[in-house]
Design a protein that fits this description.
Helix content of chain B: 40-55%
CATH architecture of one domain in chain C: 3-Layer(aba) Sandwich
Shape of chain C: globular
Strand content of chain C: 5-15%
Distance between the termini of chain B: 9 Å
Number of domains of chain B: 2
Order of helices and strands of chain B: EEEHEEHEEEHHHHEHH
Oligomer: heterotrimer
Helix content of chain C: 40-55%
CATH class of one domain in chain C: Alpha Beta
Chains: A alpha/beta (about 260), B alpha/beta (about 260), C alpha/beta (about 375)
Shape of chain B: globular
Strand content of chain B: 15-25%
Radius of gyration of chain B: 18 Å
Number of helices of chain B: 8
Largest sheet of chain C: 4 strands, parallel
Structural class of chain B: alpha/beta
Largest interface: A-B, 29 and 28 residues
Distance between the termini of chain C: 38 Å
Number of strands of chain B: 9
Chain lengths: ~260, ~260, ~375
């Protein structure tokens, strides 16, 4: 049985191919300009090629993510929260909670046996989502990926006092002018983000550990900051790229399609 | 008497050298995280262009966000005062200045000598600043210069674009592009709502002709055309709108030495 | 003496802030937290409790409060809630507030919900002033008195209440005396120092404060602040402004802050309790309600007239108002004030600010530009 999960985010498309529920190929592409369906289809074909599978042999394809409605060639479009929960539930070790941070969202979900039981999202604001890092990185001349390692060198704790991503950018420029070190500024940025995530975790209640998925989970400085602020353990999946967990979940749901589509 | 003005903005650093009130050289560099170096580099460029030596400069005025870091500045003044002075020096009829730079947006009223009489700056939002337009250009994968003409070709289809937050506006535009909407139409809509916001800012100080539009965004023909329409008057755009602040700074320095 | 002064004005710094409240508690007494300037403090003191003004956390991060309060609401209330929730205010036994605006009402509700602190009371302050509303307020003051009596277990002795009124009136008179010294060409203290002083008054037993300030008055009479020549004299406004950093920001931008209308400053002590002969409680109620005040959707004309008079008395060149972000009363008042100041040819700058110290870069630029304008005018008009 061949199942494919497609997760179309605001910056990346992620594809996971499962053969009899086992991960055989993945593909991640940055979305550029042009027709989104074409870009996603190319990514899908590339993944299948990696797996040595022909397109006609695919049994079921599930599309998720904010761009899912544009993917006409998928068999079904399913909401992100269902797919991400399903994906997290498959990961060892089992955790009752997870944090999915993307470019435009930060959401904490309570996982009940693979189904989302309760969730809290960022309050419509960009601060606390990946977008904040994206905006903050520019004046520092760093890529978001570089920021993680850089923050670990920090020796001074400074605070970013603005809650808004746009103002924070101005503030970061001021801090640069005040000769604050890049690593200290980056750490302050992570602290600010972690505080917003902390809020979501507090709403959830007593959370001792949570899994983090989405591309930003690979950012070691951010993960550390969240652990520090929220006082809980953050587990980043190692057996699969955290960025692919939602696509994986989509494929898994697809593999159960005869039994579960009725209840979705 | 030769003086210099250095304007350290969030996107670019500009230096202008003035001899007896007339500009003789200028230099622009991108502002790096080392703002002191950016200031020095722009100054060197201006010196090269003018054929002068550092010793020839009797007074340096610093302005812009990074003015506190210009160790070689004799005095610092806010960019509000500098833009008013610079614009009025280029065109003695200027009484209102709209300056849209990298990080913020200001509307200034001045007297016949270019002295500030009133001003207002954007308080909360970066929508309409250089940074915002830069990001749109990135999104659409074109240059900043191309944005203007594209927006004039498009017809506003009233596509939903947030006018309250730069971040949301960018998200909305991204989604529209994904959905395959015509880029010109998107830009037309975005710039229409942008022009409304800018008009609202100008209204807070009122307009007295001549209105001068300075700053990097003044090069955007899409914004300029829309503002001329909503204001009902011809806008004066200096030959080099980006260096008005530095020019004004140099002039203020020169005047203080008289 | 300077050292004594500095110690006093730094009383509300985070590391010193709780000192007197904790000492008070060690003596077996209780602490009642306050937020606004309308709760009659004399009643609390007369019952043997310490009225203690709550400064919210000065940290930017307020994750716990965010669970109960949306982000775009009064930041002072949110920061106060954060302090209650993170344990910083565990020693506070009770809180009394008025329903100044919806944010205060909601804060009261949330505190009720999370059951912190032990004693909670809200008073109803009318929005207009008339004999009818004054009677309503008197009733509110009366129920407040009864609530305090029940909580403290003591009936308030009228003589003790009278004594407290005298103590508070003395505090008000002393602070007025100090503020008079700001009228001078070279004021005796900076705006930031003045804020430190009034903040100190509100967090320690008032008698103790009076003692300390009284000793300092002769010294302050001779004191002069540095480097104020030629700087524009500025009148500052804003609500819930307790971080001296904001006043320093204006002063560092090139001004001398000679007067304020802060609820944390002049509005706290400006009017005394009059005519206490036959109706003490009534006199108290009158004092707390029938004055211009601040941060209310009312009394704007009174506030404007008062401000204009002060600008004259303190010889101020312009107004810098740093309004609390998302706080409604001054946001609404802004247009009204704009007209009045424009009609009187007064330079007026009104900007939003966060509750904790933030956005200094942006604020500094705007304030400096404003001062450049003001400076030029005052140079032009003074010959």
């Amino acid at each position: 049985m061949i199942n494919v999960g497609l997760d179309i985010g605001s910056q990346f498309v992620k594809t996971v191919v499962l053969k009899d529920r086992i991960n055989v190929a993945t593909c991640v592409d940055k979305l550029g300009s042009g027709s989104i369906e074409t870009l996603v289809f190319d990514n899908y074909i590339t993944a299948l090629q990696k797996a040595g599978i022909e397109e006609k042999n695919v049994d079921y394809t599930v599309a998720t993510g904010i761009g899912r409605e544009f993917i006409g060639f998928a068999d079904i479009q399913i909401s992100e929260i269902l797919c991400s929960t399903r994906g997290v539930n498959w990961l060892p070790p089992p955790t009752g909670f997870f944090l999915d941070m993307g470019m435009e969202k930060a959401i904490v979900v309570k996982n009940h046996d693979g189904k989302p039981f309760q969730s809290f999202r960022n309050d419509r604001c960009a601060s606390g989502t990946g977008r904040y890092l994206d905006i903050a990185a520019k004046p520092l001349g760093l890529s978001v990926e570089e920021m993680g390692e850089v923050s670990l060198k920090s020796t001074k704790e400074i605070s970013i006092s603005s809650n808004c991503a746009v103002f924070a950018e101005s503030e970061i420029i001021s801090l640069i002018h005040q000769k604050e070190k890049t690593e200290d500024i980056v750490r302050a940025i992570f602290k600010s983000m972690a505080s917003k995530v902390h809020s979501l975790i507090l709403k959830m209640g007593n959370v001792k550990n949570l899994t983090m998925i989405g591309g930003f989970a690979k950012n070691v400085g951010l993960v550390k900051a969240i652990e520090l602020e929220a006082g809980c353990e953050v587990i980043v999946p190692s057996i699969i790229d955290p960025q692919l967990v939602t696509a994986l979940g989509a494929a898994l749901i697809g593999s159960e399609n005869e039994k579960t589509t009725a209840s979705l | 008497m030769i003086t210099a003005g250095i304007d350290v903005g969030s996107l670019s650093t500009k230096a202008v050298i003035v001899a007896d009130g007339k500009p003789v050289g200028s230099g622009i560099v991108l502002t790096s995280p080392d703002t002191e170096a950016s200031a020095a580099n722009s100054m060197n460029k201006a010196l090269q262009q003018s054929g002068l030596a550092r010793n020839d400069i009797l007074h340096v005025t610093g302005t812009g966000y990074g003015r506190i870091n210009i160790s070689f500045a004799d005095k610092t003044t806010t960019e509000i005062a500098c833009h008013a002075k610079g614009a009025n020096a280029q065109n003695g009829l200027v009484r209102t200045i709209l300056d849209m730079g990298g990080q913020d947006c200001k509307a200034i009223r001045c007297d016949e000598q270019g002295r500030v009489v009133n001003f207002v700056m954007n308080d909360k939002c970066a929508a309409g600043t250089g940074r915002f337009l830069e990001r749109i250009a990135d999104l659409i994968d074109c240059s900043l210069e191309e944005l203007g003409p594209m927006s004039l070709q498009g017809v506003n289809k009233h596509l939903p674009i947030s006018s309250t937050c730069a971040v949301f506006a960018e998200e909305d535009i991204r989604k529209l592009i994904r959905a395959g909407e015509d880029v010109n139409a998107i830009l037309a809509g975005a710039f229409d709502s942008l022009a409304i916001r800018i008009q609202a800012l100008i209204d807070r100080v009122g307009t007295e002709e001549t209105l001068c539009f300075s700053g990097g965004v003044a090069k955007n023909v899409g914004i300029v055309t829309r503002l001329e329409k909503s204001l009902g008057l011809k806008i004066f755009i200096p030959i080099d709108p980006q260096i008005i602040g530095a020019f004004g700074a140099a002039l203020i320095g020169w005047e203080s030495m008289q | 003496m300077e050292e004594k002064f500095q110690t006093l004005i730094h009383s509300n710094d985070p590391e010193n802030r709780n000192k007197w409240a904790l000492e008070w508690k060690e003596q077996g007494h209780k602490v009642i937290g306050l937020l606004d300037i309308y709760v009659p403090e004399e009643i609390i003191s007369a019952a043997g409790l310490l009225p203690w003004r709550i400064t919210g956390t000065w940290d930017a991060a307020v994750p716990r409060a965010a669970v109960h309060r949306p982000s775009m609401t009064c930041r002072y209330c949110t920061h106060v809630l954060e302090s209650f929730m993170n344990g910083d205010l565990d020693f506070v036994d009770g809180l009394v507030t008025t329903q100044i605006d919806d944010d205060f009402k909601r804060l009261y509700d949330v505190l009720n919900y999370i059951d912190k602190p032990g004693f909670l009371h809200i008073m109803y302050l009318p929005h207009t002033t008339s004999k009818t509303t004054l009677d309503m307020w008197k009733k509110s003051v009366n129920s407040f008195k009864e609530a305090i009596e029940t909580y403290s277990g003591n009936k308030i002795d009228p003589d003790e209440l009278q004594r407290q009124v005298l103590i508070y009136n003395k505090m008000r008179a002393l602070l007025r005396e100090v503020y008079e010294l700001r009228k001078r060409e070279v004021p005796a203290l900076t705006g930031a120092e003045a804020l430190g002083l009034t903040s100190a008054a509100r967090i320690m037993p008032r008698e103790l404060f009076n003692e300390q300030l009284e000793q300092l008055i002769p010294y302050l009479n001779e004191r002069k602040i540095e480097k104020s020549d030629g700087k524009p004299r500025i009148f500052m406004g804003g609500e819930w402004l307790d971080h001296p950093g904001y006043v320093r920001l204006v002063e560092n931008a090139g001004a001398t802050v000679v007067m304020d209308e802060f609820d944390t400053g002049s509005q706290y002590f400006w009017d005394i309790v009059y005519d206490t002969s036959d109706d003490l409680l009534g006199a108290l109620a009158k004092r707390y309600m029938m004055r211009p005040g601040l941060s209310r959707m009312a009394q704007w004309e009174m506030q404007a007239n008062r401000n204009l008079a002060w600008m004259n008395e303190f010889n101020a060149d312009g107004v810098v108002e740093l309004r609390s972000l998302y706080s409604l009363p001054l946001d609404y008042r802004y247009l009204f004030m704009r007209k009045i100041y424009d009609n009187n040819n007064i330079f007026y700058l009104s900007l939003n600010r966060e509750y904790h110290l933030s956005g200094q870069g942006m604020l500094q630029t705007r304030i400096e530009a404003f001062l450049e304008m003001v400076e030029r005018k005052s140079r032009a008009t003074s010959v």
